[in-house]
Design a protein that fits this description.
Dna Ligase, domain 1; D-amino Acid Aminotransferase, Chain A, domain 1; single chain; four-stranded parallel β-sheet; alpha+beta
């Protein structure tokens, strides 16, 4: 009689689920995906297609797996709580995901943990927003607490009149908005880690992320010229968040490094994250393998780098007709050291269509390889 196979169910058929397919085979586990459509990026592992907001559908999916995890954080909490009450193993659990789904709840909890953040306030009317703006140098970042990502649901405001549409539609955002200090930062960083339900935690090297129009464009691993004090601090921050919020699986902590030397928490993701894609080629254990290990409460893998530097460049859609395949041979011939990942998504301006990774012993070499190959792929 054959040994039983561990089964991980992933809700969401996007590129993150797609990139879990290869490590699931390496680990000898069965990956099953509840996809939104038949042609999702993770179609090869899609065992069910349906609406993840419907309890009945997610319940049926849960019967086919040993643990449920996620490609995104958008499954309604009441669906997850109902299944948890029925004994379904969900990782990360709903009590942690609520902080990823609601930025206001996240700020409140991180404040209770005394972790470093920009100044912030809950805003329910024009006066409270104007008061915050005045108290913070005449400008603020305003966010919708729910639903924003990749630059969406964020605006710079200098007066409550700039946000009149949001203020007049507070019910759509849970009744409040989140106002934050406009941080004078020198760069953005990301600290990736993973935690098992039994409590073990592992972290990768701190990385620097470079944004383009609110979307991550380039990731440098490790973050150049990061001090040993900053490296120790960011790992400690990630571990305290994982423990304090009860996160299991992957955790990405997006950070600001300020001109006056502060490290401040920007946002969180409780799943594999764009800033960790470099780890597929650049680390002993990729974030996708680690996520699967963690949600199954298996021993975590090593996070050591495979080379001194790794650079990841996102392939962002230029128009609705991008076709990377026609330039694939030219890109790999010119830069044979690079790895290309495409996501099987319909092209759209600014959309993450894939990424390129280059690992090397010098940062310049890794940057040249990844950016050079990206330029070739994106040619018309």
């Amino acid at each position: 009689m054959s040994e039983p196979v561990l089964r991980v169910g992933v809700i969401g058929g996007g590129q993150l689920a797609r990139m879990m397919i290869a490590p699931s085979k390496k680990l000898g586990i069965s990956l099953k995906v509840l996809a939104e459509s038949e042609d999702s990026p993770a179609a090869d592992a899609a065992t069910m297609v349906g609406d993840y907001t419907q309890l009945s559908i997610v319940r049926e999916f849960s019967k086919t797996v040993d643990v449920i995890s996620f490609d995104h954080e958008h499954v309604p909490l009441d669906v997850l709580e109902a299944l948890e009450a029925e004994g379904v193993n969900i990782q990360p659990p709903s009590r942690a995901l609520r902080f990823a789904q609601n930025k206001l709840q996240m700020r409140k909890r991180l404040g209770e943990l005394d972790l470093p953040m920009p100044a912030w306030a809950e805003v329910k009317d024009a006066k409270s927003l104007d008061d915050f703006i005045v108290a913070n140098g005449g400008v603020a970042i305003l966010k919708t607490p729910i639903g924003g990502y990749d630059g969406k649901g964020v605006m710079v405001v200098r007066s409550s009149s700039d946000a009149s549409a949001w203020l007049n539609d507070l019910d759509s955002f849970g009744g409040s908005l989140l106002a934050e200090e406009k941080v004078d930062f020198v760069r953005e960083l990301s600290q990736l880690g993973a935690r098992r339900p039994s409590g073990d935690f592992a972290a990768w090297p701190l990385v620097e992320t470079i944004q383009e129009n609110g979307v991550c464009s380039v990731v440098l691993s490790p973050a150049p010229e990061a001090s040993s004090e900053v490296i120790e601090l960011t790992k400690n921050i990630a571990k305290r968040i994982a423990d304090g919020l009860g996160v299991t699986g992957m955790l990405a902590v997006e950070l600001f490094e300020t001109r006056d030397g502060r490290i401040l928490i920007n946002e969180l993701a409780m799943r594999p994250h764009n800033s960790g894609h470099f780890s597929i080629e650049g680390a002993t254990t990729s974030q996708f393998e680690q996520h699967l290990r963690a949600v199954l409460d298996l021993p975590l893998g090593e996070t050591k780098p495979r080379a001194r530097y790794s650079v990841m460049v996102n392939l962002l859609g230029l128009d609705g007709t991008n076709d990377f395949s026609k330039n694939h041979d030219a890109a790999t011939a010119l830069h044979p050291e690079i790895s290309i990942h495409t996501y099987g998504k319909a092209a759209r301006i600014g959309r993450k269509m894939g990424h390129i990774t280059c690992i090397a012993e010098s940062l310049d070499e890794a940057l040249t390889g990844a950016k050079g190959a990206a330029a070739v792929l994106l040619q018309g």
